[in-house]
Amino acid sequence: MLSFFGRSLQGLALLVGSAAMTPAFAAPAPDNQEAQNIALTQAAFDRWRDGKGSPYDLLAEDVQWTIVGRSAASKLYPSREAFMAEVIRPFNARMRTPLRPTVHQMMADGDRVAIFFDAQGTAKDGVEYKNTYAWLWRMREGKIVEAHAYFDSIVFNDLWTRVQP
């Protein structure tokens, strides 16, 4: 069985060749929390793409944001301010044009949201920055309270060391 942050993903099985689907096998409709989390996340990514905001607008003050892997920024950030001050502001200061996302997939399961996307922009030195991301969030009352971010650390580290904020 698949899991997402340790939770079972029930109702996602595809029944092939079945002439009729009984109610016992029907996938449950997304609950209000899932629909709300997807709507908030989609709206935040749309604003980011359009240059009118970002998903960071959804961060709770006490968010636990973890950058996974071996990048120059990989660690747990214990608050919104720590993450913004140590990663996002210095990253944006390295960019001539801001990152713009292209979302490939977004899904929710209860209070969990997964976003798979590409983002690209131009660094201050004129070199294009392109990376692929997978973010896994836990949300509460419309805010991100926990996140795990995965991306190509080689691409990130190249920008981080090549361009000074």
Write the topology of this structure:
Elements: E1 3-4, E2 7-8, H1 32-49, E3 59-67, E4 76-77, H2 80-93, E5 95-109, E6 112-123, E7 128-140, E8 143-151, H3 153-162
What does this structure look like?
- The structure is a single chain.
- With 165 residues, the protein is an alpha+beta fold.
- It is 25% helix and 39% strand.
- The protein has one domain (30-162): Nuclear Transport Factor 2, Chain: A, CATH 3.10.450.
- It has helices at 32-49, 80-93, 153-162; strands spanning 3-4, 7-8, 59-67, 76-77, 95-109, 112-123, 128-140, 143-151.
- A 6-stranded mixed β-sheet has the order 4-3-8-7-6-5. A two-stranded antiparallel ribbon has the order 1-2.
- A hairpin with an 8-residue loop joins strand 3 and strand 4.
- Low-confidence stretches are 1-5, 7-28
Shape: globular
- Counting DSSP E segments of at least 2 residues, the number of strands comes to 8
CATH class: Alpha Beta
CATH fold-level topology: Nuclear Transport Factor 2, Chain: A
Query: What is the CATH-assigned architecture?
Result: Roll
CA-CA gap between termini: 45 Å
Q: Secondary-structure element sequence?
A: EEHEEHEEEEH
| Structural class by helix and strand composition | alpha+beta
